[in-house]
Design a protein that fits this description.
The complex is a heterodimer of chains A (433) and B (157).
Chain A: H1 20-25, H2 30-38, H3 41-51, H4 63-68, E1 79-84, H5 93-100, H6 102-116, E2 120-125, H7 130-145, E3 161-166, H8 176-183, E4 207-211, H9 212-224, H10 226-230, E5 241-248, E6 254-259, H11 264-271, E7 281-285, E8 294-295, H12 306-311, E9 320-325, H13 330-344, H14 350-367, H15 373-387, H16 404-418, H17 420-425, H18 429-432
Parallel strand pairs in A: 1-2, 1-4, 2-3, 5-9
Antiparallel strand pairs in A: 5-6, 7-8, 7-9
Helix pairs in contact in A: 2-6, 2-9, 3-6, 5-6, 6-9, 13-14, 13-16, 14-15, 15-16
Chain B: H1 7-19, H2 27-38, H3 43-53, H4 57-66, E1 78-83, H5 86-90, H6 93-104, E2 117-122, E3 134-136, E4 139-141, H7 146-155
Parallel strand pairs in B: 1-2
Antiparallel strand pairs in B: 1-3, 3-4
The chains are: A alpha/beta (433), B alpha+beta (157).
Chain lengths: 433, 157
């Protein structure tokens, strides 16, 4: 694994890497051309299914399987949406892919569009990324003038338009149903699933929503084959290159591309240079802020892929790794995240809207030294009411329309469970007695 | 004060309507366009835009109030938005907020009396590798320190 060569980010930092000329000079659009001119929908879907590419947005759903849910006999238009609404705290990989290689993403979009017979695709990018949105618009325009997008692309009989759409600054719009509502010009309130977007999405038409990184993998799968892709990483069941975002208490924060299944300690200590000033590692959030944190003792030998993280009681999520060293105040950190979720709760479901605000209030009380002993259990009780334990065997899918409820409950529970002593230390003296 | 798109923006708005399969989907791009032009969205702007999008002003207001990037009240010429979420917080975002608050003698959410600066705390800007991050209008300023920020702010026209 030491001789791994970056695949998605190999051109990052090269002068002009975002331009069409550069991309074409490095085998760009070879895969899209092949997909449009020489492959049919089934061939593309089978190939990607066989590659075991899992969605890189957070849930890790197999990409090829998702596309196969698009109904064939449906005469309504089909849509593809690239989810570039990157906002999960600790995650900044999509921005890097867009900045350095927007054409890799557009090529991936052409391949999926071809597979699901879509003729109008969107890139929903978070509204704050103004510069990145302009860059994408310029890249799309380059493609339009070069017969890579538009009518009869690559001289074939297939038409495809891509629109860049800037969001309005709402974390929840990274959730696919909320994103679709926002794209329809409405408030971004998630819809109940099913029906899933593949059946009823944008304008109630069959729609696929894929993450930037997922799409960026596709040209490489078409060019090099499914077997090649499965050979990358620790397990053929969860393979491929992965972008890991390291931030917080590390010497060299940044995006690092490594094979799926790379050990978390390797990423922290080798890639990102370890903690500053030789401070001891305390805890790590392994997959964006929604992933329950792991203590330093829990990450020994832990492989960073979907199944390993699930087995460790957390999740790979978006690959956003936030490192906290011994100087971190866990009560403050927990409050910081709870406040984030309270601010970003869309307000549709009562448990989440009321619960996140209430929990944040209780945590703020703690940080101000006014916590009460019973508050610790109260916090646990509130998390249980927002996003109680999901029991799939019972057909239970949480207590809110979308997974936001779990996304706030699980990390807060982990903070309190694993660092209960720090919460107790915050209690005023009489309450602590 | 009535609202109308400039000639250039009018052209862009018409292009939007042709690109999207339904009119209402052009709402967010149209709102961005109007806000870029006017600085913030007045009642008159919202009423005119709603008419152009073929929806009621209340329906458009529903969308506006949900999305934090749209402003319905005047704000400073420069919107200083300090990211306060975990990675930025671990890198000292609180000190940056205190510094700006002290520099301009305003609290978070306030605008300087000369109308130049509005200070806001915002949630994750998605640039955690270069924490702490401040967004000033459309631009990100990354790995900022008090000194670096002072130099940036001193240069603003």
């Amino acid at each position: 694994m030491n001789d791994f060569q970056p695949i998605l980010t190999i051109h990052a930092g090269q002068p002009g890497s975002a331009t069409l000329d550069y991309y074409l000079a490095h085998e760009g659009y070879r895969a899209a051309r092949r997909a449009v001119l020489d492959m049919n929908s089934d061939e593309i879907i089978q190939m990607v299914k066989h590659s075991n590419l899992q969605g890189r947005g957070g849930a890790g759903f197999p990409a090829g399987v998702k596309w196969s849910f698009i109904p064939r006999d449906n005469k309504r238009p089909k849509y593809l949406i690239c989810n570039a609404d990157e906002g999960e705290p600790g995650t900044f990989k999509d921005r890097m892919l867009i900045t350095h290689n927007p054409h890799q993403l557009i090529e991936g979009m052409i391949i999926v569009s071809r597979a699901i017979d879509c003729h109008l695709a969107f890139i929903y990018i978070r509204g704050e990324f103004v510069k990145e949105a302009r860059l994408l618009e310029a890249a799309v325009e380059e493609c339009r003038t070069s017969n890579i997008l538009g009518k009869n692309i690559f001289g074939g009989k297939y038409d495809l338009e891509v629109l860049v759409y800037r969001g309005g600054g709402a974390y929840i719009c990274g959730e696919e149903m909320a994103l679709i509502e926002s794209l329809e010009g409405k408030r971004g309130w998630p819809r109940i699933k099913p029906p899933f977007p593949a059946i009823e999405g944008y304008l109630r038409c069959p729609t696929i929503v894929n993450n930037v990184e997922t799409l960026s993998n596709l040209p490489h799968i078409i060019n090099n084959g499914a077997e090649w892709f499965r050979s990358i990483g620790a397990s053929p069941d969860s393979p491929g290159p992965k972008l890991y975002c390291l931030s917080g208490h590390v010497k060299k924060p940044g995006v690092y591309e490594a094979p799926m299944g790379t050990e978390l300690t390797t990423l922290i200590f080798n890639h990102a240079g370890g903690t500053p000033e030789g401070n001891k590692l305390k805890a790590v959030i392994p997959g964006g802020s929604s992933a329950p944190l792991l203590t330093a003792g829990e990450i020994e030998g832990l492989k960073m892929d979907f199944p390993s993280l699930t087995a460790a009681g957390s999740m790979l999520g978006s690959g956003g790794i936030i490192v906290m060293d011994e100087t971190t105040d866990m009560v403050q950190a927990c409050y910081n995240l709870a406040r984030f979720y309270a601010h970003e709760s869309c307000g549709q479901c009562t448990p989440c809207r009321e619960g996140t605000a209430w929990m944040t209030k209780v945590l703020r009380r703690f940080t101000q030294g006014q916590g009460r002993r019973e508050d610790i259990d109260l916090i646990m009780d509130i998390t249980d009411n927002i996003g109680g334990l999901v029991d799939f065997s019972e057909g239970s899918f949480g207590k809110t329309v979308c997974p936001f409820g779990e996304a706030v409950s699980w990390p807060v529970r982990a903070f309190v469970d694993k660092f209960r002593d720090e919460f107790e230390a915050y209690l005023p003296k009489e309450a602590a007695a | 004060m009535s609202f109308a798109f400039t000639a250039d923006h009018k052209k862009r708005f018409s292009a939007l309507l042709k690109q999207y399969p339904d009119r209402r989907s052009a709402a967010l791009p149209a709102l961005h366009l109007a806000q870029d032009q006017e600085g913030y969205l007045t009642t008159e702007t919202i009423e005119t835009l709603a008419q152009m999008l073929d929806i009621t002003p209340a329906t458009l207001m529903d969308t506006i109030s949900f999305h934090t990037l749209f402003h319905t009240r005047p704000r400073g010429k420069y919107l200083l938005q300090v990211c306060q979420t975990l990675s930025c917080s671990l890198a000292g975002a609180d000190e940056i907020v205190d510094h700006l608050s002290h520099r301009y003698q305003i609290k978070v959410g306030e605008t300087t009396p000369d109308g130049r600066f509005t200070l806001l705390k915002v949630e994750c800007l998605g640039a955690c590798e270069t924490a702490p991050v401040v967004q000033i209008n459309d631009d990100y300023y990354e790995k900022v320190s008090k000194e670096k920020l002072n130099r940036i702010l001193d240069k603003l026209p």
